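Quick one - first record:
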Amino acid sequence: MKKSNEEDAAAPKPECHFITARTHYNNRLSSIERLSTGSKNIDDILYGGVETKAVTEFYGPPSSGKTQLCHTMCALVPQDKFKGGACGKSIYIDTEGTFRTKRIAVIAWARGFDADMTIDNVRVAEAADSEQQERIISHEIDSLLQKDKGNRVKLLVVDSPVTHYRSEYVGREMLPMRQQKLYSA
């Protein structure tokens, strides 16, 4: 049933509220946590670790330790804060076939953590192509977060976000399309 113009006019308009930049900064700061990478040196460079509610990209040549870093962070996130964790869960989107549950369990065990509890707090999805990757990111993660009412998901790993796009959109003439797809994903 459609509302009449009179009903629309009677509906309260949302108010616009300005706050100071300091208040904005303090509100944002109070909701951000820092996740340890497992490396004191990297954590120091990042002023205490990777920020939640932010995008952090690790890049480098093959075999430089990017996936190892992601696995280590997944092992740390469910741990108590005094153990370098965030009492949370991780979501891992694997686009390269490099995710290893056993590796996360070994990292947890080597650090004295409960390996079973650790791997129970990592959700994994494998994306076989860019279309599936986009569906996972735009629909399935949202559904997973809706089920997690406690908002305990603290880390989202996409290893690697560009893999499928690089192989599916090849050549200079496909570069604009590839970039557009990456920006929208």
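second record:
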Amino acid sequence: MREFAVGDRPEIVVAVFSTDVDVVEGGDGSIGVEIDGPKQELELFEIVHTGDIVTIRSRKGVRRRVGRGISIRLTVPASTSVTARTASGDLRFSVPISDAEINVASGDVHLASLSGRGRIKTASGDITIGDIAGGIRISTASGDVRIDQLGGDASINTASGDIKLGTTHGSVEVRTASGDVTVRRFSGVMFEGAAMSGDFDIGLVPGMSIEADIQTRSGRFRNLSSSSSGKNEPSISATMRLKTMSGDVTLR
């Protein structure tokens, strides 16, 4: 493994083709890079260190198929920023990340935690994120999206992929064609969703006040949530706008 000294604002840049990349947490002040695979293919990658930034990329002229037998493992400090672009490789981050700019074709993206702002785009890869404290913009064609804890704002667009959100505190905008949208517990201030044939299933905090505009042309609407009652003011007031053509809408 090669070690590179970095300062208080570490950043990694990854630009490879068909290579899986694992990023794990290390100590402060250094970034470690380990590339495993056939020796003749290892020479097709280059590592550049400039200040707080470490870049791992395929050399110019390398064909897209090169790198399938290669694995890259990075050891970085917590709250490192990430810029990554791959063709078919998976990206796995078990370390808390600060800001992220990720573009993947058919690979999956796994993030344990995002404290800053993120933008992720995939074609057919799935996106899984544990916790988001900042904000996120996600775009995918046929990949599924799952976020376990959303503390900030989110904008999510899919074609046929499903969207699953856990505990959701921020403002959310989701758009999908045929994917389903499921929210385990929504306690934010705004939820806006649009779908063609996808269903919405949203869990609400008991007693919260919702100003809702819900439209479905041929789908079914069900309100199974408990409404606020008595003289107590609702603890949370939110705006919800949902529109679907043939999908069902359920509030719990």
